[in-house]
Amino acid sequence: MWKADSPRHIPSAAAILCAALCARALLPLIAYSWTRDARIFKPPDAASYHACAESLARTGSFSISGVPEIVRTPGYPLLLVPGVVLGHVTAVTVLLQIVLGCLTVWLVYRTTFILTENRLAAATSGLLCAFEPLSVLYCSLLLAETLFATTLMLFIFLILVYLKRGKMRHLVAAACALAASVYVRPIAYWLPFVMAIFLAAAVCRRREGHGKDALGAVAFLCICAALIGAWQIRNYCEAGYRGFSGIGDQALYFYDAAAVEAAVRGESYYTVQRRMGYHDSTGDASEARRLERMASEARRIILAHPVTFAAQYARGIARTMLDPAAIDYLKFFGRYREGGGLLGKIIDRGLARTVYELARARPTLFWSNLILGLVLLAYLVSALAAFTGGPAGGIPLAAVAITAIYLIILSGGPNALGRFRHPVMPLVCVLAACGCERMRRRGDRRTAYAGGMGRGAHDGTRPSGTDRV
């Protein structure tokens, strides 16, 4: 229930959802009308997801060409299955993702209200998420980002409800939602362990109910481990692969190790990738052994040059958070070809030199990045404001911040781009709304204090000490 004295001018949740729906539905219609090319909805990664969905729909097995798939996970291909069955995979999936995108906006709205108990802050977060550029765009692309953001926000919402009410059913639901997000994108693989430590630490700050809360943290980790471990058992039994997904091994070898080799040898990043066999997959039962060899070789290269790797990884984190992702919009509207080589230029020549060259050679790309960069800066500064002036929000806000930090850190590396920031942005919207609310309250206190000083000067009195707080 909302507070009775809520200002009437604050937009309702229904109005915000309508705005989110319009933004997400209009963009693909405008882009298709502009390009008349349905391929804009299918980036290169969509092909492997589609192949897995075809296998699930036709044979009930998760495989490609009869070989058990161990690189992709089944979370996103399951979302593609209805479209495959109906024969319109692009249209059906984009429609489902628009619904999921609106659900994410609602979860952001509700999560912020739990944190602040303020309808204005909740509406602010909802509007920020409704028009956040990456969140709007990726509803139209056949990639796992939108589903991952929804499952992750569902987890955040449920864990905050648990922290507020202490009901075990909310904790179980949160564990299931987090495990589901791992099946969509394995980057969340270690997040259950991180959140279990967080829940255990939260127990130490409470004065009562330690036993029940500690049991909840253990139960949370066990549920996640059981659900996630089931897929690892499947991988080992069907393909002899011990990991949850081979995507991490591929990234470690073809991106991280390749970037280190390029920097050490003074060669082009793409040249090293080609020499290492990028995109050359066996596609047979030996894939598990191949992935294990790649992971072992990548670790050898990285451990031999840890400083170079650390520098590359740190620059990747910076790109994840600061890349405006205007290229993604230009690709969607057919104004930038796929594989344009910009990432390789950034890795080989550095960001500053690449930006300078863009300003001279491709002004459209430069100015679109500048505009979206200013928008991104406003989001990030507002989010940081949630932590200024001392602690606020307590344990629930810390849960949001820890999840965001986890995703940011694990999204680093030489292949990092603005796309990897996508699942972080709903959390940024929550934090930004909390930051705006905090700044608003601080402004109200200053106004009240200034008013008290004015009245004191008028009647010859001074405001009391409590007036200054």
Largest sheet data: 2 strands, antiparallel
Would you list the SSEs in sequence order as H and E?
HHEEHHHHHHHHHHHHHHHHHH
Task: Return Rg in Å.
Answer: 24 Å
Structural class: mainly alpha
Amino-to-carboxy terminus distance? 30 Å
Report the helical percentage. Answer: over 70%
What form results from the Cα inertia axes? globular
Number of strands: 2
- The mean pLDDT is 88
Q: Determine the number of helices (DSSP H or I, runs of at least 4 residues).
A: 20
- Strand coverage percent: under 5%
**Strand order across the largest sheet:** 1-2
Number of domains: 1
Low-confidence stretches: 1-5, 462-469
Concise account of the structure shown:
The protein is an all-alpha fold and 469 residues long. It has helices at residues 13-35, 46-59, 75-86, 89-116, 119-130, 133-137, 145-165, 168-184, 191-205, 210-239, 247-265, 269-275, 287-304, 306-322, 326-332, 342-349, 351-361, 363-384, 394-410, 425-459; strands spanning 63-64, 67-68. Strands 1-2 form a two-stranded antiparallel sheet.
